[in-house]
Every structure is written in structure tokens, then in C-alpha cells.
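dumping this here before i forget
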Amino acid sequence: MAEKDIAEKTLEAYNDVFADIINVLLFSGRLLVKEEELDDESPNSSYKADGKLHAQERDVAKYWRKGIVRIALYGLENQTDIDNDMPLRLFSYDGAAYRAQLLTDKEMREKTGKTAARYPVVTLVLYFGYDRQWKKPRTLYECLDVPEELKPFVNDYRMNLYEIAYLTDEQVQMFTSDFKIVADYFVQMRKNGNYEAPQTAINHVHELLQLMSVMTKDNRYEGAYSPDMERRQTTMCEVLDRVENRGLQKGIIQGENTILSLMNYLLSNNRTEDAKKATEDKAYRNKLLIEIFGNKI
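structure:
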């Protein structure tokens, strides 16, 4: 997930995208969180195990504030694969965030005699898989073997999981940032198995194409980028045209290289007549390609 995290983090780190995700998924499209109310928070924290400190890192984390008052800390975690231990991991992240508040409060008391403000921590898991739904644990109870007699004393923890590919069309239309393009892509892939690009203009072109390349495992998306796209209106229709053209060009080059390899093989093995016939007869040429290269072509 490391490469995916880097790309996803770049797009979602923009305040307009981050606020859009929070407003749609948590607040059903109500514009409660404004981008100017968000401040970056270090995604890093640590925990102690085996006598050593170990680092842990969220994907994206931001404070939500009104004026100088912090209202909440929001965190985003991106998943392309299902993680059985996700509730445990989130419980650790949220616990570290609350622990940080205690340390801040202690420092403020020592310096000013006043207490620091306390605020809730809300973490969202964005699952991008479209070929299967999340059927694994969503709660702490589902990760643990808790005896019935202990359940009254063990607090459960439920993660806020959002399956992007399974959002409704109405939910997708609520997005106003580039995340609308991302959500629409995964919903279409889940429903139709292919993607028809809308005429929606892209605001963060490079970051979006980086994300698409990583999530689709198709480097043509990032390869289609050019700096001039940032200076004018660019849509996913244009991007797909460039992606398809790059694929066509790559196919032509690969085809030419394959034929050259065939000719070199035939001529180096004194099969001049076969080489001549292969240039004139496509069916015979394909027969020779299978005979000589088999599944390598």
C-alpha cells in the first residue's frame, strides 16, 4: 500500500478535496466543513512495544476549527484491499490522537495554568475495491474473541467504513471536488465493468492522474499528463483520449518489434522463403509467430 498511500495522500491533502469527502460521507452533502477551516496535522504517532518506540502513520489528518477553537480531528485511511485488523489499527490511531491531547494539556497546565481544549477524533476508512464488498471485521468485537461474561466490561469500537464503489449515484453527485471523478470511476467500474468519462473539469490534474495510475495499475494515466493541463481546462474525456492513444501507439511499436524479431530469427536460420512468404501472407506470418515464439508474444 505504500505507493498507493503516497498518491492518495497527495490528492486528499488538498483542503477542498478533504472537506468535500467529509461533508458528503459524514454529513450527507451539507457544507458543514469549509476548506478554510482545516489545518494540517502531522499524521505520525508512535507506540511502545518490546521496550522500543514504533512509528505509525495515518494517510491524511486535519484539524477542523472555528476561529481559534479546534472542533475535531479528522483522519482518512485509504484501502484498496480488505484488512482483517483494520478496526484494531484505527483504534490505535485514535488512541494516539487522544494521548497527544493529554500531553498538550499537561504542557499548557505547566506553562499557563490553563487547560487545553479537548475535541473528538473521527477517522474514515475509504475502501476502493469494486470487485467485492468489505465482508471482514468492522468492529473491535469482530476482531477479538470476547467471552460473553466479559462483554459488559469491554467497550466496542466501530470504524466508519465507506465503500466508494458502492456509493449511490445520488451520493456521487453530491461531491463537488475532484473526488467526484474518483468516486464516479469506481462506481462505474463496479456497475458496468468499464468507464465512460464525464466532461467534468479537473482542478488538481497531476494529483488526480497520479491517483488513477496507482489505483488502476495503469501508468498511462500519469503518462498522459503534461504541465499545460494545469493552465487550461482539462477533462477526463481528454485524459482518456490521451490514454487510449498511448495504448495504441504502444501496441503499434510492440507489433513492429515482434515482426522484426520474427524476421531476424528466420533470416539468421536461413529460412529466406519463410521470411518472404511472411511479408506477403498474414495468416502464414501469424502461424510462424506462434510456432517460434509461442506464448511469448
